[in-house]
UniProtKB/TrEMBL annotation:
GO terms, molecular function: glycosyltransferase activity; peptidoglycan L,D-transpeptidase activity
Cross-referenced InterPro entries: LD-transpeptidase, LD_TPept_cat_dom, Transpep_catalytic_dom
Domain (L,D-TPase catalytic): residue spans on this chain: 4-111
Any Pfam family: YkuD
Protein name, per record: L,D-TPase catalytic domain-containing protein
Length: 112
């Protein structure tokens, strides 16, 4: 049984999927702007929502920090940049792949 966790590294715009301590996938991400930075800390995925509408692309995974999540985007050019209001943006195909792997309650560490 895999023991997944996620590390979001804001300094290199990458989301890493780990099984125990081994990186199994890395995905490029977009993060918060200077005025609306992505918060660092330890969180958990608390819900999942396909097709959430608005700018959230094809999938939303809510974090235990209210109003923050990992989601797709309708603007692929925002991945790899500081453009969000603090959420973690992924390419739609990547967020679908990640959401299919990680269960609710997966630990998410966001570091700078």
């Amino acid at each position: 049984m895999p023991n997944y966790r996620i590390i979001v590294d804001l300094s290199d715009f990458q989301l890493y999927l780990l099984d125990v301590n081994r990186v199994v996938r890395a995905f490029p991400i977009g993060i918060g702007k200077m005025l609306t930075k992505t918060p660092t800390g330890e969180y958990f995925i608390i819900n999942k929502q396909p097709n959430p509408g608005g700018p959230f692309g094809v999938f939303w995974m809510g974090l235990s920090k209210p109003h923050y999540g990992i989601h797709g985007t309708n603007d692929p050019s925002s991945v790899g940049r500081r453009t969000s209001h603090g959420c973690i943006r992924m390419y739609n195909e990547d967020v679908l792949e990640l959401a299919a792997i990680v269960p609710i309650h997966t630990r998410v560490t966001i570091r700078s």
